[in-house]
């Protein structure tokens, strides 16, 4: 299954569950302290650790695909992390807390939108969803560049497609 979540963090609060299953550790994405540094993690029996924290004070899209050995996680403009996270079933989704509502795992977040699919989402559709959410919540902006100065670029103009379409196309996954 796959979840897309548009959210804004308010504080560095590891450990904090952005969502969990119906019971604690039923399949979650969280901000955890790894070696003393807050990092986004995904779990369903084993962990994927991203190596980056989610931004504070701005909306971003976090995506998790819970698919056993082919699981993956990404956040807006950050690299995708993949791995085997296990097969713990979420069942029901608990937002901004652990599945058992333990106060120690509450997240200080605003959630703008949650989209859940019952299966993995193709790279092309993932790109479309990121673009849709990015435009809807003004997360990415169109950049226009005008080159001047030499015979190769004088007067040249290009419009750069916002991430993630450009990045996914460059990776051959669009």
Concise summary:
11% of the residues lie in helices and 37% in strands. The chain is mostly beta strands.
Keywords:
single chain, mainly beta, five-stranded antiparallel beta sheet, globular, disordered C terminus
Give a verbal description of the structure.
The chain is mainly beta. It contains two helices and twelve strands. It has a five-stranded antiparallel beta sheet, covered by helices on one side. Strands 5-4-3-2-9 form a five-stranded antiparallel beta sheet, with no helix packed on it. β7 (71-75) and β8 (81-83) form a beta hairpin. Residues 155-174 have low confidence and may be disordered.
Which structural class should the secondary elements be placed in?
A: mainly beta
The arrangement of helices and strands along the chain is EEEEEEEEEEHEEH
Strand content: 35-45%
Determine the N-to-C terminus distance: 20 Å
Estimated radius of gyration: 18 Å
Widest sheet, order of strands: 8-7-6-1-10
Total helices: the number is 2
Low-confidence stretches at least 5 residues in length (pLDDT < 50)? 155-174
**What would the average pLDDT be, to the nearest integer?**
78
Q: What share of the residues lie within helices?
A: 10-25%
Main sheet attributes: strand count, strand direction, barrel closure: 5 strands, antiparallel
Number of strands: 12
Shape: globular
